[in-house]
Design a protein that fits this description.
This protein has 144 residues and is mainly beta. The chain is built from no helices and 12 strands. The protein has strands spanning 2-8, 11-21, 24-29, 32-37, 76-79, 84-89, 96-97, 102-108, 111-116, 121-126, 133-134, 139-143.
Length: 144
């Protein structure tokens, strides 16, 4: 909540108020945790802030916590960097491409963007056609 620095009889203390409810204050003084009862000379004003308590998150089941094994497929997906529209497909299934070859042209943010091959490969499958609207990270085609 709040941090303070006190000097008492030449000794420095760093005090952090962690929580203060009713007349109990939880403090941390120079890294040590204290729960302190505070006595007031006057009536204490009650806070109007509601304290929210979240329920505990359930632990995942054994099936949910499994990490899938690495893919043995040699397919490399080519994904869209931005949402847009496919304007021209420059390759077809079975074509051999070299790294840096243009695979297709798409329009995104009112600009034409070329999608290039990341490696020397063969076009295994094409998942879009000209005129298709795609979202970011959609698979356009797969190389192997």
């Amino acid at each position: 909540m709040k941090k303070y620095k006190f000097t008492i009889k030449g000794h420095d203390y760093e005090v952090e108020i962690l929580n203060f409810e009713h007349n109990i204050a939880e403090l941390e003084v120079n890294g040590t945790h204290y729960s302190v009862e505070v006595q007031f000379q006057q009536e204490v004003k009650q806070t109007k802030t509601v304290k929210l308590v979240r329920s505990a998150v359930p632990h995942p089941t054994h099936e949910e916590s499994k990490i899938p094994p690495p893919s043995t497929s040699r397919m490399v997906p080519v994904k869209t960097p931005l949402p847009g529209t496919v304007l021209k497909l420059l390759v077809k299934e079975g074509d051999t491409v070299k790294r840096g070859d243009t695979l297709l042209i798409m329009e995104a943010m009112k600009m034409e963007n070329s999608i290039f091959a990341d490696k020397d490969a063969r076009v295994a499958s094409i998942r879009v056609k000209e005129g298709d609207t795609v979202l970011q990270n959609d698979v356009l085609l797969e190389l192997e």
